[in-house]
Specification:
This protein is mostly loops. It contains 1 helix and 4 strands, in the order E-E-E-H-E.
């Protein structure tokens, strides 16, 4: 299993030094996670370190496309339900 960084990533550099397996790399248009190196921090930490530090909701997703920091999880604000929104409502 491996995590993925999606287009909402702002390339803020917060995650890069935290990955214990150096699976995150600088790329355009946003950072990337090397799926061969990513272990989701299993055996190293209780939670994936990239998602723990990421300030952008929905920027890091698991192999099923589920956001580790879904909209509203960091801000406590419910996302606006919009028919074209790529995110599921938390309510």
């Amino acid at each position: 299993m491996a995590l993925h960084i999606v287009a909402s990533c702002t390339s803020c550099w917060a995650c890069l030094p935290l990955c214990p397996h150096e699976a995150i790399s600088v790329a355009r248009p946003h950072f990337q996670i090397d799926s061969a190196r990513c272990t989701e921090c299993a055996g190293d930490y209780a939670d994936p370190q990239c998602a723990s530090i990421c300030p952008i909701e929905g920027a890091i997703v698991d192999s099923t496309g589920q956001a580790l920091n879904p909209p509203g999880s960091l801000t406590g604000l419910s996302p606006v339900n919009h028919p074209n929104s790529p995110f599921q409502s938390l309510t």
